[in-house]
Every structure is written in C-alpha cells, then in structure tokens.
UniProtKB/TrEMBL annotation, chains A, B, C, D:
<comment type="subunit">
    <text>Homotetramer.</text>
</comment>
<keyword id="KW-0227">DNA damage</keyword>
<feature type="short sequence motif" description="Important for interaction with partner proteins">
    <location>
        <begin position="177"/>
        <end position="182"/>
    </location>
</feature>
<feature type="compositionally biased region" description="Low complexity">
    <location>
        <begin position="122"/>
        <end position="145"/>
    </location>
</feature>
<dbReference type="InterPro" id="IPR011344">
    <property type="entry name" value="ssDNA-bd"/>
</dbReference>
<dbReference type="Pfam" id="PF00436">
    <property type="entry name" value="SSB"/>
</dbReference>
<dbReference type="InterPro" id="IPR012340">
    <property type="entry name" value="NA-bd_OB-fold"/>
</dbReference>
<dbReference type="GO" id="GO:0003677">
    <property type="term" value="F:DNA binding"/>
</dbReference>
<feature type="region of interest" description="Disordered">
    <location>
        <begin position="111"/>
        <end position="182"/>
    </location>
</feature>
<comment type="function">
    <text>Plays an important role in DNA replication, recombination and repair. Binds to ssDNA and to an array of partner proteins to recruit them to their sites of action during DNA metabolism.</text>
</comment>
<keyword id="KW-0233">DNA recombination</keyword>
<dbReference type="InterPro" id="IPR000424">
    <property type="entry name" value="Primosome_PriB/ssb"/>
</dbReference>
<keyword id="KW-0234">DNA repair</keyword>
<keyword id="KW-0238">DNA-binding</keyword>
<keyword id="KW-0235">DNA replication</keyword>
<protein>
    <recommendedName>
        <fullName>Single-stranded DNA-binding protein</fullName>
    </recommendedName>
</protein>
<feature type="compositionally biased region" description="Acidic residues">
    <location>
        <begin position="172"/>
        <end position="182"/>
    </location>
</feature>
DNA sequence: TTTT
DNA sequence: TTTT
C-alpha cells in the first residue's frame, strides 16, 4: 500500500556483469551498475558535451534471477523501480548514505538487445547460460497469472553476502579498505 | 510477461462518479472518466488557451473496489495503467474502436484529495461507504506482502454488465440509440 | 502549463515504415504504428497466451524528422508522449473518436536497435537517408541548450495531408471506403 | 540529446519549506526534501509497517521559482525529474556521493494540494507571495508556446550559495561541523 | 565501468 | 522532516 508515488524509469547499459548474491532462504539478489547517457550543448562553446550518469540497481525475486542469467556487461536494459536510500556506517564510524534503484515485485525489467545480451555472442556467457533459452526474456516479478507465486523478500533487508570478494562491490558490513559503496 | 512497455500515468479529476459493475465471479470492474487539463499559449494571440483531455479508465480487482468506494465526481487521482484498444460493432455493423487505460494487477491508483474525495463531504456517499475507513486509501493490486492474494480476472474480457442503464456509459453490446462508446 | 499529468511511455516495434506529412509551414508530422507485446498465463489452460497491443503515434517537430528518417518497419523504439483523443466524422456523418499518443515538444523518442533501425540494413532506406549520419539518434524536441530552437506547431491541428494514398493510414478527411482511422 | 532514459516520478509531501538560492546570473535554484510513504505487510507478524522514503530534490529555472513561491512544508507535490549523483569531499578528505532528483527544463512539477500549499494559509508566506496569484500553479520549464523562453542554466553546476546558514542544508563546499549532505 |  |  503506497501513500505516495516513487518510481524510477531507466534505459541504459550495464557497466559490468551483474553481481548475484543469495538471501538465507535462497532468493536471488542482483546488483547492477547502469549507465544512462545524455549530452547537452555547452552554452559557452556551443559544443555537444557527453555526460554519463551511473545508477546502482538492486533487484530481487524472479527479476533478479533473469537479470543474473541473461544480462552482461554492455547489455542495454529498461528498468522500472523505486528510489531507496540506505544508511550505513563508514570505517570512521560516520554515517554514509547510498541511494539505489530497487526493482522488486512491483518493478519491471526489459532486455533491449537484439539478441539476448551484450557481449554474449562473442564469448561464452558465464554461469552456464542455457543455449536453448529464449534470447530476450522480459521479467516482471508480479504479473497476470502469477498469483501465489513465490517472491523475493525485498523487505527487511538482511540478505546474506557470500564472499563479496574480488570483483564484487563493497557492501556496508564488509571490512574493506575503503568505505565507498557507490 | 511483457515483451515491451505499455505504461500510462495520469493525474486528473473525475468527470462523474465511478461506475461499478461485477464479473460473473463477483469481481469488481470500475469505469472512470478522467480529465487532465493543460493550457498552452496560442501562437497567434499569445493567449493562454485551456484544453481538457478526457480519458476512459477501466479498473479491475482490488483497485476497482477501492475506487468504487472512495472516488467521486471531482476527485483528484493519480492513475497508472496501460493502453488498450478494443474493437466493437456499431449499430450499423461497422467496426468501432475504443482506447482505454486499463488499471489491473500491475497498475496503481492514488487518491490525491485532502480528505477522501471530491464532493463526498458535502453529500452522502453512495454504496454505504463505511465512515470508519481511512480517508485517503491508496491501492495497488499487487504489492509487497500480498503474495497469494486473489486478483481480478483482468484478462480475457467478457465481464458481465448488469443493467448499464441510466447514467452509465454505453457499452458495445448495449442496445443504445447511438454507438459512441467514448 | 499543465494542470494535470498526461504521460504515456511505450517500448515496442513499428508495424510499418513511418508516414511523414508536412504542415503548410513545412513542419514534419509523422505517424507510427507501434506494437507492444505482452503475454499472460491463461487461467483455464495455464498456457502462455501472446497478446499484441497496437498504438497510433503522432510526432511533431524535430522528433518527427528524426523518426521519419531513421525509423523503419520493425524498429524498436522508446516513446514518451501524451494521450489525445480526437473526434472526426465518419462517412455516415456520425462522430468517431481516435485516441493517439502525441509526441510533441514535451515528449521523447529513443531508438533501441543495435544499429539504427529494423530492416533497414537489408533494403535501401527510403527518403534518401544519409549514410554518414549517426546510427542511433535519440530525439527530444525540448532539451538542455536548445533554448530558442524552433519547434513543431503541435497545437491547433490543421496539418496538410499530401496524398494519403496506398499504404498510408486513412485519415478523417480522406475519402476512403471505410471510416476506420485506427 | 539523450542516449538513454533517466526519469524519476514522485508524489509526496515536503518535510520542510523549500530552500531557495540563486546562481550568479540570478537564476533560482531550489532544494526540496520530499517524503514518499509506503507501507508493507510484515511477513512474520502480518502487521502493516509504514515506511517513509526521503528524496532530495533540486529544481532549476522557472519551476524553481514557482516551487519556492508556492510550496511549503507539508505541501503535496508531483515531481518529474532525473537521477543525478554528485561527488563531493568530506572534511576528512574522502569522497562522498549524494544522489538527487534534478528537475530542470525537461522536468515537471505539479502542486496537488486543494488550495495552494501546506500550511501557507495559516501563516504568512515568505518571499512576498502575491495574494492574487493562482492558488495551485503547475510548472513545466519547457512547454508548448514557450519557444525561445529563457531557461535556467541547469548544466555545469557551480551555482552560488548565499549564506547557507541556519536552516539550510549543508552543501559540499560549506564549512560545517559534519559532512553529511543528505 | 557501458553504449553510440 | 512530511502526510494519512
């Protein structure tokens, strides 16, 4: 039940492969880094200046599974989610804030590549992507006919972070060298 | 599962009270007539010219029930749905098309009045609106924690139209004098 | 100045090449037929049933020019516009209504194909598309740095319709065998 | 020119009066703190748990002026903008990131209160609000008929911060006791 | 860090 | 810090 509207709509490309983690009860949680490009005309020079905005995306439930399986670095994707800012503690004990686009049971994800993913035609896709699968799956955690389906526990936080090692983004509870979560 | 995006977002006021019908299995179906206002500067005269656009809304499921109960003529409301054009036969046997904004399990509705609806404070609300209810309910057919909840059969059309008499909008199958559905 | 919100967001594919017309003062007006796909699980059979929704798009100004030049049948595109229903007269003198998604100075268009359009690599693109142009242009009639730029006269209607012949969609004023505008 | 889509749509209430600043060339820049409410059903207890999300909004141009003049603490408002994360230096020399919703020439703002703002009827509105003005103005920096109109320089950052003292939010360049911008 |  |  919402007493307001909180909606984010993005179309952009992944800066890197998705990172998949799992909650204690086995639900997938996927993090994406998404770039949206814009260019504007500089008022001084009249030049077109490119500008890239990076977004941190967190996906839950079925959408997360699909994203983890089919999206790759470079993939173009449509995402609909909501803004969420979470507070965490830096190593210095001070509060830090990270704003993310959360794609949960009310969100949507849509792959926009011609054939199912960025560089996956040129090189083998990791995680044993099944070749017989549809090439451009779309995902919506909640949809017609999906009544009673299991859904990611996107509330209450507290998902596990197995590893978080090399290549994965630092998370608040991790003991990393720096405390920059974004 | 969507292989595309079809989204409509409206904020406007109801031109009349909602019309509620029921499907054979008891699910509510509500029709709204929503006005969105816009004004533009006439290039000749420089005058600000007001322009009202009317939208035909069809709601299913829990949202429909809430809308039927709390919305009234004049109510300001936020609506998120999808575009759908349906074909029907005019009395002359020719095809007609009506485009509607469908608010189903994936849609959203949000009342925006200060206290629960347009003119409902000045006159008794029909349909036995419970006075102890929250004044400004928001509705989303599908939401967190709602797993396994029943949902409107918003697919396959074919809902019943009990009456359709005085005050209700003409529907394709009705035997009205004119064949204008919108 | 809007006293409401009227927004449509679509991602889909063109059912045919864009139709370009020009206003008396030379501004481009482009019509598109856009399909958005959705499939839902039939509650009886449990089968996934595909469902295609067709949308009639009207574009004005700079966006129209870009769309006319780069979009082709099959092109995947993101569109942001507003709903507009216009009334016209059928041959029988009765009123008809057609709802369109209008993409004007406040709208947006975004090509989503890997390389500039649907089937345009396999066959010569009409209208003398320049080969040296960027492959995937994006268009926004109104944008940063664009102050003072000319814009389509998307108000007041009354654009000319040169031809409207074979292959183009019937328009209200045309003298066609049927009066179905959509 | 956008090579992507970056859109945020919010409906919520202001947590405090808007803060207005001015760029060196006199353009208004307004900061808002907007709350969007959501409640979800706790899966353990079955209780409805309220949850408020706070958003930092930055407005430029004509929208900023309207917002500064008419919005007040408690005002309900519709906002359309884009996500932007900016980097700044904490007092400890470390990088910090703040994500904001930027409402510029492409954004939109819509007041949703019955009569022009939260508590502004009960107390004198600052900044000499004209009493004869419309009660519920809507604002769009870019709109029909607005061709050639001046617009806020929403690019390049670097607006001045006159004061930033008591009551205003800490900004990166300020010399405050803490370095929390959000 | 992506994409054109 | 808002609102219901």
């Amino acid at each position: 039940m919402a007493r307001g509207v909180n909606k984010v709509i993005l179309i952009g490309n992944l800066g890197q492969d998705p990172e998949t983690r799992y909650t204690p009860n086995g639900n997938a949680v996927v993090n994406l880094n998404l770039a949206t490009d814009e260019s504007y005309k500089d008022r001084q020079t009249g030049q077109l200046v490119p500008k890239t905005e990076w977004h941190r995306i967190v996906m839950f439930g079925k959408i997360a599974e699909v994203a983890g399986q089919y999206l790759r670095k470079g993939s173009k994707v449509y995402i609909e989610g909501k803004l969420q800012t979470r507070k965490w503690q830096g190593q210095d004990g001070q509060d830090r804030y990270t704003t993310e686009v959360v794609v949960d049971i009310n969100g949507q994800m849509q792959m926009l590549d011609s054939r199912g993913g960025g560089d996956n035609a040129s090189q083998g896709a990791p995680q044993g992507r099944p070749q017989s699968q549809p090439q451009q799956p779309a995902a919506q955690n909640s949809q017609q006919g999906n009544y009673g389906a299991p859904a990611g526990n996107n509330q209450g936080g507290g998902y596990s972070q197995p590893g978080g090692g090399q290549g994965s983004m630092p998370e608040p509870v991790d003991d990393f060298d720096d405390d920059i979560p974004f």
